[in-house]
Amino acid sequence: MSGAAAAFNGSSGDLGCIVSAFGLVILISRNAAAAGIRQTIFGKCSKPLAIIVLVLGIAFLGTGLAAALMK
Length: 71
Prior knowledge:
Elements: H1 12-42, H2 47-70
Helix pairs in contact: 1-2
C-alpha cells in the first residue's frame, strides 16, 4: 500500500452536508429503535413514534433528492 491516504478534499459546506446526513440517519435509527422497544414492551405500535420515523425518512429522501438535483 504505497502512497494511499484517505483525505477529504471538499469544502466546509460539503462537510456540513455529510455531517447533517449522518445526523439524520442517526435520528431515524434512534426513533425506530425507540418505537421497536416500546412495541416490544407494550405490545402495540406507537402511532406518534411511527409518524416521526416516517417523516424523518421522507426528509432524508428529500434531502438526497435535493442534493442530487443541485449538482
